[in-house]
Amino acid sequence: MNLPTRFSLNNGKHVPAVGLGTFQGDEGNSGVKDAVKLALQLGYRHIDGASAYGNEKEIGEAIRESGIPRHEIFVTSKLAQTWHEPADVRRALEQTLEDLQMDYGNTIQLLSIMRDVL
Q1: Which of 20, 43, 86, 112 is most buried per CB count within 10 Å?
Q2: Which residues belong to any copy of the NADP-dependent oxidoreductase domain (predicted)?
């Protein structure tokens, strides 16, 4: 069985089928930075983070230090529940981009914890 290496989006862009998630890093997030750098060296091209994880600065540094052109890496971030009000979205996205030290993210998702799922 052949598994896909990427998925096509409706805008013609592609998202890698496998990515590195960065939830629950260590104190100071140096382990997250090292993990992202290693993943990129091993061929990962999708990095999944979130402002709520507190490690977007380290993710951005790792991507920049990898030497891999930014356009070759698909970066996902998430908008935490505290930023879902329409008036807060722009500020939250600007903060994420500043923390990542990037001009753009490839996808921004709404992060929502479902506490009472059946």
Answers
A1: 20
A2: 19-109
Q: Which residues of the chain have pLDDT under 70?
A: 28, 111-118
Q: In the annotation, is 44 catalytic?
A: no
Tell me what pLDDT residue 25 has.
Answer: 75
**Confidence (pLDDT) at 17:** 93
The radius of gyration of the chain from alpha carbons, rounded to an integer in Å, stands at 15
Q: Check if the beta carbon of residue 74 is closer than 8 Å to that of residue 45.
A: yes
Output the CA torsion sign for 25, 27, 32, 35.
Answer: negative
Angle of CA points 9, 62, 12, to nearest 5°: 10
**Do residues 78 and 51 touch, judged by C-beta distance below 8 A?**
yes
For the chain, domains (ranges, CATH) are 6-110 (3.20.20.100)
Pseudo-torsion of CA 7, 40, 102, 16, nearest 10°? 0
Altogether, the residues listed in the chain come to a count of: 118
- 8, β-bridge pairs: 14
